[in-house]
């Protein structure tokens, strides 16, 4: 590659690098030259209690005097990192050394190796666990115990025959001959299994430690990919620099810049580059600023640096959280703005007039629109009713008499961070909404909350989500602070308290998808100045999304255990009608509320969200109920709800814009017809359509 071509291809990356270093960088990249070792050296325990990087060159390094290439030891994604580590022992060994992780064998806990003495009560830790009768008989015979005792041993060892036998036989009351006979009976499997289990346990523990520590070393960059539809989208890669780059220490006033550089030469190769921005004497440590450039607020910087063990700031951050919590308790109530009057006289008269003209870009609407009184048109100008699947921006072009399926600024409810802010400003902390933090603007109170939990013995378990992605994309569950703080580096995220006590259906986690219609109609025909009437209604039919595996508070990267959206990946999808769900639910949870009571609570939570949206002015809400336009509006939202605790408390998880309702149309062929008719009675029989809704 010629130098001129290099400059052209890499111009955007070079813009932040001093021009005097462009040519040296070009030459080193072309030769794949890693010459940092001629100028720098690693120290351990001097001055830090870990590795640090120092100048060894006589005369030191001069500001903008040189630039060094740094290799990447590991490039990964959070969702695949554990599997990569488990499959690559050489990588684990290298990272263990870089991160200074101790891998000494720990003494195994002897939780199940107590054989009850005479008079002791034999207790099963998992009494509901089913075990194979043949295995019970085998363990009873080999362990010379009753089948009752054998069954308990198998339950306590989660069905592991060898561990159950060991728990029954490796005991002072059993002599060496008995142990020898046991080993012979199972062909030495006890010893081999014990050794294998010890090795596997050590491997898992080491990987767990790396998974925690990696966030203190990882950096990230974005790259573009083309999806199967031909659309370009951005993805993020996480990487850990080699021993040189990973040994740089943090400083609020760094003497070096360290940044990723994607070289397009011999293919596309990712490096990091280091260059000094101050003179550094021989023996001086190279430092960089660990905090991303977009974090300016001093408190947010302290919050970010908590993951690097800056415990001296913990009390200050906890105080930020406690102050934020007190503000939640000072919210004043307001009147809800809805009416149950769904139509006025002039709309009823329209029912016998010409057909309703519908323009739509939404495939499921066009496919399922079968009403005789509705005709599809090809032009927006011809339409009475406009139904878009994409965001609509040009509201000023809409004319009197038109209706559109969107509200201005409805991202106030469909973006997760905005929904949380809306609920907090209107109601403070409420049981139907999980505590949520915007990691872009509320990093300090979030970290304060995390630390407060630690200090008060509360379990920290959080779910991290992008602001505006659906289908379960880029969502992770985390116990540790470091990944929660670092994941914000790949784009705007929220951190939300994970529901630790979900109500289960046949042992599995579930959520419920409701379709909600919000409608704004002019109070007086041909006089928009008189304002709108707002109605909100919930479609009675809902659908159930079930996890595929039994729920446990562990194994958080197991998607099929902790997540319920199964229709966009290679997963089994459970199809369950809502009527059957209600019947089964009431049988399974006969000691809890009747479903009608639960549904009333769900409806009230949904109503509260849209009441706040209607009342609050933009940008926090939809603009205020007194703000009017010549057009009328409606919107269809997909609202996901979970239930928690013994009281079946509903929790609104999120509000989705323009949901794909193909599935709903299959369950109920009249689904779209009912919505269109309620939106505009010219479409069909209004009274019949209203029977499908709960009007709130």
UniProtKB/TrEMBL annotation:
Give the matching InterPro entries. SET_TTL12, TTL/TTLL_fam, TTLL12
Q: What species was this sequence derived from? A: Entomortierella parvispora
Q: Give the protein's recorded name.
A: Tubulin--tyrosine ligase-like protein 12
Q: Which PROSITE patterns match?
A: TTL
Q: Which GO terms of the molecular function aspect are on file?
A: ligase activity
The transmembrane segments are: none
UniProt entry keywords in alphabetical sequence? Ligase
GO cellular component term of the entry, any: cytoplasm
């Amino acid at each position: 590659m010629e130098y001129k071509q290099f400059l052209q291809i890499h111009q955007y990356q070079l813009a932040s690098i001093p021009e005097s270093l462009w040519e040296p960088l070009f030459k080193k990249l072309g030769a794949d030259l890693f010459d940092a070792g001629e100028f720098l050296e690693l120290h351990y325990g001097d001055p830090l209690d870990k590795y640090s990087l120092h100048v060894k060159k006589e005369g030191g390094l001069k500001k903008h005097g040189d630039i060094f290439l740094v290799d990447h030891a590991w490039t990964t994604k959070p969702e695949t990192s554990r599997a990569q580590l488990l499959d690559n022992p050489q990588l684990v060994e290298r990272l263990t050394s870089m991160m200074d992780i101790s891998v000494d064998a720990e003494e195994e806990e002897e939780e199940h190796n107590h054989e009850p003495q005479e008079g002791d009560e034999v207790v099963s830790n998992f009494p509901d666990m089913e075990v194979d009768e043949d295995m019970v008989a085998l363990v009873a015979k080999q362990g010379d115990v009753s089948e009752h005792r054998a069954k308990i041993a198998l339950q306590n060892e989660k069905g592991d025959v060898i561990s159950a036998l060991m728990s029954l036989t490796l005991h002072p009351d059993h002599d060496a001959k008995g142990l020898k006979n046991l080993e012979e009976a199972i062909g030495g499997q006890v010893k081999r299994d014990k050794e294998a289990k010890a090795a596997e346990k050590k491997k898992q523990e080491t990987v767990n430690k790396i998974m925690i520590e990696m966030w203190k070393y990882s950096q990230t960059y974005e790259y573009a990919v083309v999806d199967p539809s031909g659309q370009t989208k951005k993805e993020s890669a996480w990487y850990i620099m080699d021993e040189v780059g990973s040994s740089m220490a943090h400083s609020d006033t760094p003497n070096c810049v360290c940044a990723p550089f994607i070289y397009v030469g011999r293919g596309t190769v990712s490096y990091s580059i280091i260059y000094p921005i101050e003179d550094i004497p021989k023996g001086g440590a190279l430092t960089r600023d660990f905090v991303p450039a977009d974090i300016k607020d001093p408190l947010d910087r302290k919050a970010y640096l908590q993951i690097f063990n800056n415990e001296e700031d913990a009390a200050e951050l906890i105080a930020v959280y406690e102050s934020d919590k007190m503000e939640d308790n000072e919210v004043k109530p307001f009147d809800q703005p809805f009416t149950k009057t769904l139509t006025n006289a002039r709309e009823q008269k329209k029912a016998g007039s010409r057909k309703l003209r519908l323009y739509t870009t939404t495939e499921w609407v066009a496919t399922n629109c079968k009403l005789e009184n509705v005709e599809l048109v090809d032009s927006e100008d011809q339409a009475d009713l406009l139904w878009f699947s994409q965001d609509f921006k040009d509201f000023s072009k809409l004319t009197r008499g038109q209706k559109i399926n969107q509200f201005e600024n409805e991202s106030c409810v469909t973006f997760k961070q905005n929904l949380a802010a809306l609920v907090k400003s209107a109601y403070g902390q409420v049981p139907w909404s999980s505590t949520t933090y915007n990691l872009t603007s509320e990093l300090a109170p979030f970290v304060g909350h995390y630390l407060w939990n630690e200090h008060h013995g509360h379990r920290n378990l959080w779910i991290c989500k992008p602001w505006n992605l659906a289908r379960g994309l880029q969502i992770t569950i985390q116990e540790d602070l470091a990944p929660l703080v670092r994941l914000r580096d790949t784009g705007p995220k929220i951190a939300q308290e994970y529901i630790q006590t979900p109500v289960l259906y046949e042992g599995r986690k579930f959520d419920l998808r409701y379709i909600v219609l919000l409608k704004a109609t002019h109070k007086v025909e041909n006089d928009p100045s008189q304002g709108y009437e707002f109605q909100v209604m919930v479609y009675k039919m809902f659908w159930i999304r079930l996890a595929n595996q039994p729920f446990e508070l562990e194994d958080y990267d197991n998607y099929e255990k902790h997540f319920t959206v199964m229709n966009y990946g290679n997963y089994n999808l459970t199809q369950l009608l809502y009527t059957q769900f209600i019947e089964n639910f009431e049988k399974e949870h006969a000691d809890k509320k009747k479903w009608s009571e639960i549904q009333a609570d769900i409806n009230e939570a949904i109503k509260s969200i849209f009441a706040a949206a209607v009342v609050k002015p933009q940008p926090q809400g939809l603009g205020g109920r007194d703000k009017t336009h010549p057009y009328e509006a409606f919107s269809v939202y997909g609202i996901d709800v979970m239930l928690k605790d013994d009281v079946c408390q509903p929790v609104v998880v999120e509000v989705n814009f323009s949901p794909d309702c193909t599935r709903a149309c299959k369950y109920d062929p009249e689904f779209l017809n009912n919505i269109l008719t309620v939106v505009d009675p010219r479409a069909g029989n209004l009274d019949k359509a209203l029977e499908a809704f709960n009007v709130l």
